[in-house]
Fold this protein.
Amino acid sequence: MHGAGNDFVVVDGAKEPIPEEHLASVARHACDRHFGIGADGLILVLPSRAANFRMRVINADGSEAGMCGNGIRVFAKYAYDRKLHTDPVMTVETPSGIKTLKLDTTGGKVHTARVDMGEPGLMRSEIPMRGDNTRVVGEPLKVAGKKIEITCVSIGNPHCVTFVDNVAGYPVEKMGPEIENHPSFPQRTNVEFVEVVSPREIKMRVWERGVGETLACGSGSCASVVAGFLNERTTRKVTVHLRGGDLLIEWMGDNRVHMTGPAEEVFEGEVGAATFKQWLE
């Protein structure tokens, strides 16, 4: 499944449990685009005592994500389309809290979803980032011998946003890993490279922590709009153009960030028993 090109292998963790000690290995093998299925991450659909469902997202490198904006939309589509849930409003427990989704269910299938992503974290301790516990807005950072300006935001996971003149030609593959692994970020960080088209429109490329460059990032889009407003470059309601499609992000007056975007299912299949056994080793 994918949300604006950010793709995932989705598994019903209640029906097809994966042993915890093998979860990272299974994710790495499943997400391998040459020897596995191929994806940016593995999503588990799980029962919850606090919400309708619980979501876990394991990145392609085996690390666990705190939140995934595109992932939660495809998660909701998986659950609704398979009639695991019949209400167009859904709550999902994540490591960064319970998220509420409103689903567009035209024709009995989910096409888009609007997600309440919660309130952005703006203090260093919330991101987390080393240094005095202040906001990081337009702050200089020395990376790979260059000085760039960054704004950092937590959307349940860490994001470092930098504004560029031409995002299509920017060396994301070089600067992305340098910023992701910068000593300022003790838990590493996702990195967004943003070109402002107008106050209501931006272009964005993303280097995701534990994955690399992906076609889209929902939480990164939210962080970019928050950063755009804090730097007086955008309004609070912005269309984000990503390599895989568009997302609509709104930073509401109550401080909560809402994201609306597509969810698509590509194919369904089975992993052979012999192959799965290898993935456990």
User: Anything to note?
Assistant: The chain has a mean pLDDT of 97. Residues 69-81 form the longest helix (13 residues). Residues 203 and 241 are 5 Å apart (CA to CA). The chain has two domains: 2-118+263-279, 124-255.
